[in-house]
Structure formats: structure tokens, C-alpha cells
Amino acid sequence: MDNSSAPNLKNEIKQRASWRDYYALCKPRVVALLLLTSVVGVVLASPPGDISIFILVMSTLGIGLGSAAGAAINQIVERESDAGMARTENRPLPKGRVSQQNAFIFAMLMATASVFVLTVWINVLTAVLTFASMIGYAVVYTMYLKKATPQNIVIGGLAGATPPLLGWTSVTGSVDPHGLLLVLIIYTWTPPHFWALAIHRRDDYAKVNLPMLPVTHGIEFTKYSILGYTILMFMVTLLPYLAYMRGELYLVSAVLLGLYFFYKVFMLMFSDKKNAAISTFVYSINYLMLLFIAMVADHYFAGSISQYLCDSFQFKCY
What we know:
The chain is mainly alpha-helical.
């Protein structure tokens, strides 16, 4: 039997790793989205015009290092399944450009730096929550939940939903209801976001025996599950307005962005287009970015816009 083509991860270290390989271990695109939400948490927890640049920079650095460490550990654990999927086969570990040992050392250095930065320059609460989120993603989700149940992303999604709360606690030093509401938004957004990708990559997940919902329950069931969570997500995104956390500018943005999300989901459910799933996935990323940017815009400009409208149309404003 010829085993020359069989993957041998231990013997595939063929070239010296570059900084780009270690950068790829951090999942920079994923971490960038997480950091956007953490920055929004810092901004919303601060009075308009009175944000601390030092807290913003150091919290972003600490949270980013923790998120990157979790991403690296995730790739260490999943190196064999990554080698079997088209989407991930070119990552540094499956391709042998970075050894498992070096990747682990890199992850530990980033995790240690994260805890140090947040403990020394931010506060202990944020450091503890960031470390707990990293463990939740890298250990609880990656090592256990992802292989144990098709509801893995629902149960494990909390770890990836915490960055805005981490940004919030960086400013306040406490866990506040409004910070938790930001977590709830991302938590309900995660299933439709991830399951759209899972539909697009169903064959990959089936090939490596990962029990993702489209693999275990079929694509049609997954589509209706996406619709159900999109409805829940839409209702949750209205809560910042109903809880007097955000104003009309945010409300209009949340409704318009949510309605277009429904449009993408209905196209996924009833259209024959082959790219409907990946199109929904891509929009879900843009949706979350724009929703959180709308919160910041409302935080800074809602009062000015309301006053301008009142003055322009001679409304009586209170």
C-alpha cells in the first residue's frame, strides 16, 4: 500500500514559518470583527466626547491578544479536520508551515500578554472575563461542543459574544445590563450567521465528521432554523431602543438592516441560486458591523439630529 500521499502533519514542516503564518493563526478577520464590537462597548460605556483613548487602546490590545490566542488554540486542536476541508486546508498547521509546538507557545504568549495588559492597565474583571471567553471558545467549544452536538454554535456562541461586554467593563469595571444586552445581540446573531456558512460548506463538514446542523438534520431544517433565530435576533435588536439605551437613529437603522437580513434569509430559503447561502453569510458580517456602527452614531449624534429636526420644522421638543 502506497502511503506517500497520506497526510503526515509531523513530517510536513518543509519551510521556515514567516510572520504571515503566525498572523494567519490569529484569524485576523474574525478578530477584527470582535474588536469592532469591543470598541463599541468602550464607546457606549463612555460619555459622548469624554472617551479615554488610553482605555480604548489598551483594552483593544488586551482583548485582541486574548481573541487571537483562542483562535490559535482552535487551529491547533482542529489541525487534522482543517486538513480535510477545502476552506481550511491551506492554514499554516495543516500545510506544515508552523509546528504544533510553536503554535502552542505562540498562543500561550499571547494569552499571557492579554491577561497582563488587562490586569495592569485596565482592570481585573476585564482580564478574568477575557480569559474565560478564550477558554470557552478554545476549550469548551472547540474541544468538546463542536464535536458533541449540532447545537454547538448555540451553546458555545456565548464565548464569541462577549467582546462588547469586555469593552464595557474596561470603562466601568462592572457588568451592567446594557453591556449584557450587547452580548445578547451577538449571541442571537451567531446561529444564522454560522449556519449560513455551514450550509455552503456542508460537504466539507460531512467529510471530516463534524456534526453541524446541515449535516445531521439536513439543509431544509437548517434554513428554517436560520429563519427562527433571525426573528429572535430582530426582536433582540429592538431592545436597546425599548430599554432607553439607544434612540430613534439606532431604531431606524436596526429595522432597515433587519428587514434586509430577512430578505437574504428568504432568498436562501426559496431561491435556487447556488450562492444564496454564502451571500447570506457575507451580509450577516456586514449587518453586525453596520448595526454596531449605528449604535455609535446614535450615541454621538442622535441628540443633535433630533434638535435639528425640531428647529427646522418648529416642533416643540422636550
